[in-house]
Write a structure and sequence with these properties.
Number of helices: 6
Distance between the termini: 22 Å
Strand content: 25-35%
Structural class: alpha+beta
Number of domains: 2
Helix content: 40-55%
Number of strands: 11
Order of helices and strands: HHHHEEEEHEEEHEEEE
Largest sheet: 6 strands, antiparallel
């Protein structure tokens, strides 16, 4: 079972990769249109021209592949990335082809604008995003027992017979300060398993049918213990805590377990 409990800011965002791909593609196009016959050493200038064109094109293709495969192919479909790529391409062509008329300051301002846009989009996604770590399907439901299918993200489904009619994921989280979230950092988590509860006379009693993964999803136990013991000493860490939210099971229903980027957890009904 493999899952990514955290993401490095910007690396999982296709925008900076697309911007770099556009810049190098524009640099290649600019070099391609340069004349070499009127140079002092035309043959040498011709060879140098094609060397730079091939180098810039190779870098453009490499960054485009990174934009596809590092964040994931599904995220490259955003039409705004096309605008960023075209703008970066045009800026690179203009600056390299007309250096005296446009100059370095314009390129610097263009890069700053794109980076600020990327930072804004990254922070917006960080504050509003979430990570789905599992799906729970209710196979059958009795007055005091339930049969569940637990499907962890990237893992194999597990059938569970549990006491009670409430289930609760056991998730350990490391929550970061708002500044880190603004820069795109997601909460780290360790998804350990599932437990159950029964309600009697308005009070909840935990059942004896806990399930723990042989290999929990997310960060290691030792890393979580370190943050739990030293959260006041590690800059940027707000808290390390255990999340155990209860959800009443409904027969034949399916529920998604999601970790919010600000550290919260929610269990929401979803279609089969």
């Amino acid at each position: 079972m493999n899952a990514t409990p955290f993401a490095i800011p910007f690396l999982d965002n296709p925008l900076p990769w697309v911007m770099l791909a556009g810049l190098f593609a524009g640099a290649a196009a600019s070099r391609l249109t340069m004349r070499w016959k009127n140079r002092r050493h035309p043959e040498r200038a011709r060879v140098r021209k094609w060397v730079w064109v091939c180098l810039y094109l190779s870098l453009a293709v490499a960054f485009l592949l990174l934009a596809i495969f590092v964040p994931g192919p599904s995220r490259i479909r955003d039409i705004r990335l096309l605008y960023v790529g075209v703008a970066s391409f045009a800026a690179a062509v203009a600056v390299m082809r007309f250096k005296k008329a446009i100059g370095i300051p314009v390129l610097f301002l263009a890069l700053c604008s794109v980076l600020l846009l990327g930072l804004f989009l990254q922070s917006l996604r960080a504050f509003t995003g979430e990570t789905e770590i599992a799906v729970v399907r209710v196979i059958s439901l009795e007055p005091a027992r339930m049969k569940l299918e637990l499907q962890p993200a990237g893992g194999r489904p597990v059938l569970l017979n549990m006491e009670g009619v409430y289930f609760a994921p056991i998730v350990k989280t490391v929550i970061f300060d708002d500044l880190y979230v603004f820069l795109g950092m997601k909460s780290w988590y360790r998804f350990e398993g599932l437990t159950s509860f029964a309600e009697k006379d308005g009070k909840f009693r935990q059942g004896n049918t806990d399930y723990y993964f042989p290999q929990p999803l997310g960060i290691s136990e030792s890393l979580w213990r370190f943050f739990e013991a030293n959260e006041r000493l590690v800059p940027g860490v707000t808290t390390a805590q255990i999340e155990m939210d209860l959800k009443r099971a409904r027969e034949f229903a399916a529920y998604a377990i999601r970790i919010q980027n600000d550290g919260g957890m929610e269990i929401v009904a979803r279609s089969q």
